[in-house]
Design brief:
about 200 residues; five-stranded parallel β-sheet; single chain; 5 strands
C-alpha cells in the first residue's frame, strides 16, 4: 500500500489556512476514534451515543458508519478480503481528511484486518488515533443479531468463514455484556477528555 499518488503529476496542494488555524476556530483538535469488532458487537450503538455526548458538549463531531458508507462511496465494493481492504483504505483516507479539518471523527467498521487498522492509524497521524475494540464474543453477537445477518447464508461473513483479527494493543477495550452502550460511550468520552489537547 503506497501513501503517495500513483501519478507523478499529481501533487498535494496546501492552502493558506493551517491545521492549527482550523483547530482554533473549532476550539478543539482533530481526532479519529476507530471502533472495531464483530457484526452485532455494539460498535454503531456505542458510537451513536458517543456522538450525542460530544455534540452536547459543543464539539464538532461526525460519525462514519460502515453501512452508511457502503450505501454511497463504497457501494461498488463487495466482501472479499481485497474489497474489505479497499473499503477500509478509503474510509481511512476520509477519516484522515476529517481529522485534518479539526473534527472528532468516529469510525464504526468491522475492519477485520490488523494491517488495515494500522494503515488507518498511520494516516491519522501519531497521537490522533484511538482504537476502540468492542470485545463482544461471537455467541453473544449471534444471539443479538440485530440485522438478522447470522441467520442468513452469507459468504465471507466475518467471524464465520472470514477471519477477524483481534486488536493486539487497542487504547480501549469495551465489554458490552457487562456494560450498557451509554456506559461504554462514557468510557470512550472520558478517554477523549483525558487527552487535554482535545479541550473538553
Amino acid at each position: 500500500m503506497s501513501l503517495g499518488a500513483k501519478n507523478e503529476n499529481v501533487v498535494w496542494h496546501s492552502g493558506k489556512v493551517s491545521y492549527e488555524a482550523r483547530c482554533s476556530v473549532l476550539k478543539q483538535q482533530g481526532l479519529v476514534v476507530w471502533f472495531t469488532g464483530l457484526s452485532g458487537s455494539g460498535k454503531s450503538t456505542i458510537a451513536v451515543e458517543l456522538e450525542k455526548m460530544l455534540n452536547e458538549a459543543g464539539k464538532a463531531v461526525y460519525l462514519l458508519d460502515g453501512d452508511n458508507i457502503r450505501c454511497g462511496i463504497n457501494s461498488d465494493l463487495g466482501f472479499s478480503d481485497e474489497d474489505r481492504n479497499e473499503n477500509i483504505r478509503r474510509i481511512s483516507e476520509i477519516a484522515a481528511l476529517f481529522q485534518d479539518a479539526g473534527l472528532i471523527t468516529l469510525v464504526s467498521f468491522i475492519s477485520p484486518f490488523r494491517k488495515m487498522r494500522q494503515f488507518a492509524r498511520e494516516r491519522a497521524g501519531e497521537g490522533n488515533f484511538i482504537e476502540v475494540y468492542v470485545n463482544t464474543d461471537f455467541e453473544t453477537c449471534m444471539q443479538r443479531d440485530p440485522k438478522g445477518l447470522y441467520k442468513k447464508e452469507i459468504s465471507h461473513f466475518t467471524g464465520k468463514d472470514s477471519a477477524y483479527e483481534e486488536p493486539s494493543d487497542p487504547e480501549i477495550i469495551l465489554d458490552t455484556v457487562e456494560h450498557t452502550a451509554v456506559e461504554c460511550a462514557r468510557q470512550v468520552y472520558d478517554e477523549i477528555c483525558r487527552r487535554k489537547s482535545i479541550g473538553l
